[in-house]
Amino acid sequence: MPWIYLAIAGVLEVVWAFAMKQSMGFTRLVPTMVMGVSMLGSFALLAIAMKTLPLGTAYTVWTGIGAVGAFTVGIMALGEAVTPMRVAAAAMIVGGLVLMKLSGTGET
Questions:
Q1: Considering only CA atoms, which of 92, 56, 90 is closest in space to residue 72?
Q2: Of 17, 36, 39, 46, which residue is 20 to 30 A from 24 by alpha carbon distance?
Q3: pTM
Q4: What is the rounded distance in angstroms from the CA atom of residue 101 to the CA atom of residue 60?
Q5: Angle in degrees, 0-180, between the axes of helices 55-78 and 29-49, rounded to the nearest 10
Q6: Residue ranges covered by each domain of the chain
Q7: Rounded to the nearest 5°, which phi and psi values hold at 91?
Q8: Which 3-state string (H, E, C) describes 29-65?
């Protein structure tokens, strides 16, 4: 169950990052509110997951999901550049996440 909480927390991190971009510097109310609610949810679920998962694993996976998710949303929704180097960087992050999950250092 902690991995499910962590995955949802990572997705919510992508939501709040996208909403922050859409808030135009907190000048648009609805995206700012979406950002705040999804940020609180993301932190809460991360905290619950950290009850049983190691700090390094949980935080790395959470930020990795957020980073790769934001990269993907940026490309798909905002028309950001897709370059070989950016794709390679995202692939390395995913590889690191897989290795972190497989390391099995004390998590349940």
A1: 90
A2: 46
A3: 0.86
A4: 10
A5: 150
A6: 2-103
A7: -65, -40
A8: HHHHHHHHHHHHHHHHHHHHHCCCCCHHHHHHHHHHH
- Residue 36's nearest CA partner among 50, 16, 51 is 16
pLDDT of residue 102: 83
3-class SS at 25? coil
Distance CA 62, CA 55 (A): 10
Distance CA 21, CA 3 (A): 27
Distances (CA, A) of 86 to 3, 10, 44, 61, 67: 27, 20, 30, 19, 12
Q: Judge contact between 7 and 65, C-beta under 8 A.
A: yes
2-28 pLDDT per residue, tens? 999 999 999 999 999 999 999 999 999
Which one-letter amino acid corresponds to residue 80?
Answer: E
36 CA to centre of own chain: 15
